[in-house]
Design goal:
heterodimer, A: about 550 residues, MetI-like fold, 2 domains, two-stranded parallel sheet, two-stranded antiparallel sheet, 4 strands, globular, B: alpha+beta, Rossmann fold, OB fold (Dihydrolipoamide Acetyltransferase, E2P), six-stranded mixed beta sheet, five-stranded mixed β-barrel, about 35% strand, elongated
Amino acid sequence: MNPSLLRSPWPWFSALALALLGVFVVYPLLYIFTASFFGDGGSGWVQLMHDGRSLAAIGNTLVLACVVTLCSTLIGVPLAYVSARFRFRGKLLITLLPLITLVIPEVVTAQTWLMILGNNGLITRFLKGHGIFLPSFYGWFGLITSMSFIYYTYVYIGTVAAIGKFDAQLEEAAQSLGTAPVRSRFHVMLPVIRPAILASALLVFTMVVGNFAISTILGHNVPLLSVAIYQAAVAEGASNLTMQSTLASTSVLIVMGLLFVNRRIIARGRYEIVQGRGAKPQPLKGGQGVLVSAAAGVVVAISLLPLVTIAVGAFTVSRGPVMRWGEWTLDNMARVFITAPGPLVNSILFAGIATLISVAFSTLVSYLVVKKPNLVTPLIDYVAAIPLALSGTVLGVGLLASFNGGFLSLTGTSTIIVLAYVIRRMPFGMRNGQAILHNIPNSIEEASISLGSPPFRTFLRVVLPMMLPAVASAAILTWTTTVSELSASLLVYSGGRETLPIQIFRLIDSGLMAYASAYGLVLVAVILLPVVIATTVFKVDLFGSK
Amino acid sequence: MGIAISNLSVRYGAETVISGLSLDIPQGCFFTLLGPSGCGKTTLLRTIAGFAPASGGQIRFGGRDVTELPPHKRAIGMVFQDYALFPDKTVADNVAYGLRARGEKGEGVERKVKAALERVGLGHLLSRHPAALSGGQRQRVALARALVIKPTVLLMDEPLSNLDAKLRVQIRETIIELQREANITTVFVTHDQEEALSMSDLIGVMNKGKVEQLGTPQQIYATPRTGYVADFVGAANRTDVAVRSTSPGLVEFEVAGNRLLATDALEGPAEHGLLVLRPEDLKISSAPVAGLQSLPATIRGRQYLGARTSYSVECAGGLVLNAELHGAGHDAFLPGASVHLGFDPAAARVIRS
């Protein structure tokens, strides 16, 4: 290497970043993989082949993922199509969908489904009073319903973006060549937006595989992979390191396989995405308009249901698990803020610190990867993306197993919770940072250096201010997803370090829905507050830069 | 300070972009690196700036070896093709940036910034942001920003290529004035021969990582030493010819059955050479003109260009040459007409092929 290169700070930063990623990402992952092969009682993979319940969990997870992916696509694509191409009453509500999924943690969604359709649910009891018995919401029915109504938004967002980019002239060209409008749309548009639909469907698939909150709350008698990993890790008495590692490795392998397929789709689809003049939305009137508005309205209403339910539930009197709808109280809220404020304080503290670290780290590292490439930066880029393939449960298991004693003992500390947050959300910060850096020409930096400003000062004075709007929006998105994180923190937390989602999870487990609603409402407020402040006060463009 | 480059080589991985290049640019000289894209001119500029590390050789600014010096310590002023203004800073802060990086503060900075911007005619735009400026204004700010720090050398990377034609001519003049005023050694990179010819004291025509010819604009245009230079700078008819005999200063050659005379630029004995004839040095007439060598020819094609007309002319033996006529009656000849094509041996050159 050129000796003058070592005098600049960047190679040292690269080495440091790689070392940190090595210890906190690669090491836990390798630890799990190794532990799956060499455990007490032989290789975990051999044990797995003889463990009917674990095999069933893997099978169920794959079936669930397929069904939910299909349902999500069937809801998301038509919704995207009508909202991209038509104008109708209530369209504004649909464009707010991304915000809704962003602010409602899965644990809260699962809870509200239970409050409405669970054994003690509002509708269940109402229908029971009229002699109608619904099938139990626990199990396949509940899993598929609740997951589909969360994850369709990812298909929706991906498809809307693709249709927006689709060049309407292609459609006009097809029509000019003699194809009827509907046919031409089908023949010309579908192939062009197919990669986007496939990519978002795959995303849904991976999210279902990794899902913990809904799986564990609604799964009950249906064994699922992430729940099985969790149970193997926290089993009373002796937690089974070999089995949890084997199951976690299975999850990683499934997700990595899907990411690989996803990459192939994107690579193949690249030439197909023609940037062009999007079509102007056409107004829908009469019967068609009413129909579309109604259908879209139902979808949005179901998506909004959790928010309404917890808002009401938070102020409703309860006796144990029984909600007394119609009787109001402030006791539940008093508990959140006065009697047991620990989870609120912990959440703000841990998520705040994690957001700062995550954003600082991912900003610096994306700068290294994009602007100061050297031999190790491609490796850094690759390793920093690994957490994308780790579900929260897998990450939790990995951290728990790797840093329990040994050269770095973190079990039972707040640090390990913050660490889990940082690792889980870092890839999103990286992607965001890299996207914005690709838009800053190198000449800007060179201009600063040529004017006598050393490289690191140039980064601080010139590059960072230009990145700031994007960094701010990354920070807010990191915050929203970190505050609602459950699956990894649930594994690594220790008594007294409960966060809001953990507390909600425990309350749901005990059937205390009113308290859970109060914590849920506060959690949504904590998530929403920075979003509202950023978009209204600081005019940060949260959704444009994504 | 002058710039002295000796035996410089630059490699990117396995690819050698520049090898064994030596160049002396005297103090105060406006030096232009001219060449097509990919010839290494920008790499050479970036190596002088320090952004592209040299793999071998030496670069000196006024006797001081800067080869190993990082760019921010080289005291250069640099102007970029895309202006590279800091978008989040005002015009004044952009220009003040280099002064502040040097630890200057307060009123002194303000005064210098104002003076520098007034010098380029933008004294009234101090508090604007770059996004609110036109392309020409941005390039003026970039120029003021590079010069306000009184750099030892000024480096410009195709600074005019993003501007429209009229503006380009204006800014050309501004650059030349400022450069003369500051008497600063300047390296200017361009692929535009007109810019190179009109602005430079010295031009280095680059090809494949080497300086193919170094000279004043007049030398480069009038006496190109290679076919590449002749073709790149201005238009030229280039034809392989057989050398028959040489007498001091003149060479007799044969092409397509015609025996003709031209200036000897072969630089030594040779059997073959390349005839270089500028289209504007060819005369077309209906009868042979006294004092010019003359070839019977036929007009094959004609492009009327307003101030001049460009003809494609076929001479005896099938040799096709381009000729360009100016002045009264330049459009008088029509395709198919039998004419005489004449040229002065002093205007035609045979160079080593």
